[in-house]
Design a protein that fits this description.
The complex is a heterodimer of chains A (431) and B (275). With 431 residues, chain A is an alpha/beta fold. In chain A, 23% of the residues lie in helices and 33% in strands. In chain A, the strands form 5 sheets. Chain A has a 6-stranded mixed β-sheet, sandwiched between helices. Chain A is globular, with a radius of gyration of 26 Å. Chain B has 12 helices and 1 strand, in the order βαααααααααααα. By secondary structure, chain B is mainly alpha-helical. In chain B, helix 4 runs antiparallel to helix 6.
């Protein structure tokens, strides 16, 4: 287990972001621009791949001095915000692009899964695409032939296997593509968020397959925004921020840091200036936060404790009936439920005088499922006037301690569901 | 247990040799890409593979009308239609392959930016895939041979050599243009002009003998000259086997192949970034 299988030494990657093009102002300038455009374009296109001292202003370092090692059989998670360099790192590890400096040593066959169904051709049949896609992912013809039946079985599209995939539903295409990918057997597997595909049942099957792979002694690198997935698969996680490693260690600790540090969508959002706060001249949102039982702002909640979502807003103009609403999304972007303030009758159909208000919505304990919850807040007047909205403004994690709550003593994996409510349940002995 | 392959990833600089070992390792992918190119080409068409014949056939008809019947271009003692068709099939293979290869990186950009494999496979796949069309187009040639009573001689045994030279040339030009096209999309608009110009600079619609003596040397540097002249010679016995022309062609083609492939290898490291 202690063989170093991947050794990454000081990897950096430089990209050039296209410099903004300026528009000409006068007619003469427009003409001149048109004439000189080819020259400017040539310089611009050339500069995409040549880096000299003189043109450094639009260069960004997607990765800067990344170093880490992986042991054989290790499953490593990579997390970070969009643009932190996660995908670039995977592309370098899978040899799609080269690092600008630094080096990587790897021992073993590498397969990368940055997308499901790379190379699929709509005109080809399912059978033909299995072979093509398998070869694209680095399988040999005999390997594909050997696993063909297994792949078809897994994909659940046997009866359409000789139909062009353009006649497939998108779900079927994804299933077929994942089936091929799931039967790769490299020593090192590099995966980018490919699991957010297909219907829930199939996702679950994919997850099971991923866990088999991760548990099967293979060395795996996973990039994901899905903290629950990272938590389940990886012992160790790297947190990237602006192209650098800011943390590398046990998954639980790194996720906590990521969630707690405000690198992800924070658990609290306040607006200092009323002018820039979301809203209009009737009402503006001042703050939104998630709080626990003790009244503290929190980014992590035990599944067995309640969550209080607080919305603070200023009413600026008299004469409006207002409603507060909160939309709750899970990490897959699915809208789980919407909460309205109708439980509180105090302001129902009553015009609100100007001032500062604070609404608190309590999500009961034993209701949310494990995972990330993202909240969008809005203030409206029925039936359809939207005054203020803050989209995906705060988030928090719900974790499952593994026993208690609706789970009780059930220790296996909980089914893939949207919510996990604990209902009242009475059983009587009747005979 | 078999030893695990070790991979070192680091920035490469300058010229790269062709990594034949790796190409052989990925021969299955190459095979499936060629198959895809062949299978997909005439999908959802009524005439299917017939298109491989129609294209050179109609060009031959048009050229026979304008150059043969109206302009009275000489055709080395054989009927003009078969004179031009024999060149046309070689030329159409060459031009389809070059334009297919040049656009191959861009049209396979999802592959290039999502998985690793030796990039050379992509522009080389049309070189093999178009061989099928090329073979189909011979059917008409056989028909015309019977009709016009023009037959090949023993030198027809050299035909495979000519085809190989032509494949090398198409590969060289195709890989070079493909890597340029990855970065400068101007190439895709240039290719049709380039190929049209190249066709008239090659003895497709007229015989080599029409070219003035003093230009013959320069003319011979165009590798398609030797190839097409060779085609006519071995298929229709128009002239003696043009050994000298073919030697020049072969040499130039090998140089272009090596140059194109090396330029491709030199630039391939940034394909995924700019495509």
């Amino acid at each position: 287990m202690s063989n170093t299988i991947i050794k990454v030494n000081n990897i950096s990657k430089r990209y050039r972001i296209g410099a903004a093009e300026k528009g000409g102002r006068s007619f003469r300038e427009l003409i001149m621009d048109g004439v000189s455009a080819p020259v400017r374009n040539l310089i611009r296109l050339r500069s995409l791949t040549s880096f000299t001292k003189s043109n450094e202003e639009d260069v960004i370092w997607a990765l800067k001095d990344i170093s880490f090692q992986m042991q054989e059989g290790e499953v490593l998670g990579i997390i970070g915000r969009n643009g932190a360099g996660k995908s670039t790192l995977l592309k370098i590890l899978s040899r799609i692009t080269e690092p600008t400096s630094g080096s990587i040593e790897m021992h073993g066959r590498v397969s990368s899964l940055l997308e499901v169904g790379t190379g699929f051709h709509p005109e080809l049949t399912g059978r033909e695409n299995i072979f093509l896609n398998g070869a694209v992912l680095g399988m040999k013809k005999w390997e594909i032939e050997k696993k063909f039946d297994e792949i078809v079985e897994f994909s659940e599209v046997r009866e359409f296997i000789d139909t062009p995939v353009k006649r497939y539903s998108s779900g079927m295409q994804v299933r077929l593509a994942f089936a091929v990918a799931a039967h790769l057997e490299p020593e090192i597997l590099v995966v980018d968020e490919v699991l957010a595909v297909g219907d829930i049942a199939f996702q679950k099957k994919c997850m099971g397959k991923m866990e088999d792979i991760a548990g099967g002694g293979r060395t795996v690198l996973v990039v994901s925004h899905n903290m629950a997935l990272i938590n389940r698969l990886c012992q160790r996680t790297i947190l990237l921020e602006k192209g650098r490693i800011v943390d590398d260690g046990p998954t639980h600790r790194v996720i906590k840091r990521y969630v707690g540090s405000g690198l992800s969508t924070p658990a609290e959002r306040t607006w200092d200036s009323i002018k820039t706060a979301p809203g209009n001249d009737v009402v503006r949102i001042r703050a939104i936060r998630a709080k626990n039982d003790k009244g503290e702002v929190a980014a992590e909640f035990n599944i067995q404790e309640p969550v209080y979502v607080e919305v603070e807003f200023s009413v600026l103009k008299d004469g409006w009936v207002l409603e507060e609403s909160l939309s709750f999304y899970n990490e897959a972007g699915l809208l789980m439920f919407v909460a309205l303030d109708n439980a509180d009758t105090a302001w129902r159909n009553r015009k609100r005088p100007p001032g500062i208000y604070r609404g608190i919505c309590k999500i009961p304990a034993n209701f949310l499922n494990e995972g990330t919850v993202v909240i969008t807040a809005a203030i409206t007047t029925s039936p359809h006037t939207l005054h203020a909205s803050a989209l995906e403004v705060i988030s928090f994690q719900v974790f499952d301690p593994g026993s208690g709550g609706v789970r009780g003593d059930y220790t296996r994996e909980w089914p893939d569901v949207v919510v996990r409510p604990m209902f009242q349940w009475n059983t009587e002995y009747t005979r | 247990m078999e030893p695990k392959p070790s991979i070192i990833i680091k920035p490469r600089k300058g010229w790269q040799l062709i990594n034949f070992k790796e190409l052989i390792e990925y021969k299955d992918l190459f095979y499936f890409l060629v198959r895809r190119d062949i299978k997909v080409r005439y999908k959802q068409t009524v005439l299917g593979g017939l298109w491989a014949i129609i294209q050179p056939f109609f060009l031959m008809v048009i050229f026979s009308l304008f150059f043969g019947a109206l302009a009275k271009v000489p055709s080395e003692g054989i009927p003009y239609p078969i004179f031009s068709y024999s060149a046309m099939i070689a030329w159409i293979y060459f031009s389809n392959t070059v334009s297919g290869a040049s656009n191959s990186l861009v049209s396979n950009s999802s592959l290039v930016s999502k998985v690793y494999f030796p990039r050379l496979i992509v522009p080389l796949s049309p070189v093999v895939a178009f061989l099928l069309d090329f073979a189909i187009s011979f059917i008409i040639l056989f028909g015309m041979m019977l009709y016009f009573q023009v037959y090949p001689g023993v030198t027809v045994l050299f035909l495979p050599l000519l085809v190989i030279i032509m494949m090398l040339l198409a590969s060289g030009v195709g890989t070079f243009l493909a890597s340029l096209n990855a970065k400068y999309r101007d190439i895709q608009y240039t290719i049709s002009f380039l190929l049209q110009f190249w066709m008239f600079a090659s003895p497709v619609v007229y015989p080599v003998s029409m070219v003035p003596e003093r230009f013959q040397i320069i003319y011979a540097i165009n590798p398609m000259t030797g190839i097409i002249e060779g085609f006519r010679s071995v298929l229709l016995q128009t002239t003696a086997f043009p050994t000298r022309l073919i030697l020049i062609s072969g040499l130039v083609s090998v140089c272009i192949f090596i140059g194109g492939a090396m330029y491709f290898r030199r630039t391939e490291r940034y394909f995924a970034d700019v495509i």
